[in-house]
Amino acid sequence: MDLLDLLIAPAHAQAAPAAGGGSMLSTLLFPIILIAIMYFLMIRPQMKRQKEHKAMLDKLQRGDEVITNGGIAGTVVEIGDNFVTVEIATGVQVRIQRGAIGNVLPKGTLKSAS
Q1: Per-residue pLDDT tens for 20-35?
Q2: Contact 56, 64 (CB under 8 A)
Q3: Would you call 5 helix, strand, or coil by DSSP?
């Protein structure tokens, strides 16, 4: 007996299992269940968030107080098809993509933060 045998058990050959023991249904059941779990835990919530974000952007109007994904807060001045002009300070306007708007803030949030 070797010192290494005390730390790691020696491997012994085992007989190979008989071929063709499982049915096709049992073979495909695990991947199908895994895909269903992935759909309900990852894909479906992401689609729901995208739908809510699109609805928020469709309801966007002049005078709304918004915060961008980059953290810039301002008031919507002009709305185009792809771009929105946001006033971040008196006389300072920036043009950003519609999709870059992260959230619409409640009215008066920017005035109370000053």
Answers
A1: 556 777 788 888 999 9
A2: no
A3: helix
- Specify whether the CB–CB gap between 78 and 61 falls below 8 A: no
> Which of 62, 65, 60 shows the shortest CA–CA distance to 75?
65
Concatenating the DSSP letter of every residue in 9-68 gives PPP---PPPPTT-S-HHHHHHHHHHHHHHHIIIIIHHHHHHHHHHHHHHHT--TT-EEEE
Res 93: pLDDT: 96
Could you give the CA distance from residue 61 to residue 55 in angstroms, rounded to a whole number? 12
| pTM over cut 0.70 | no
Structure tokens at 50: 């995208």
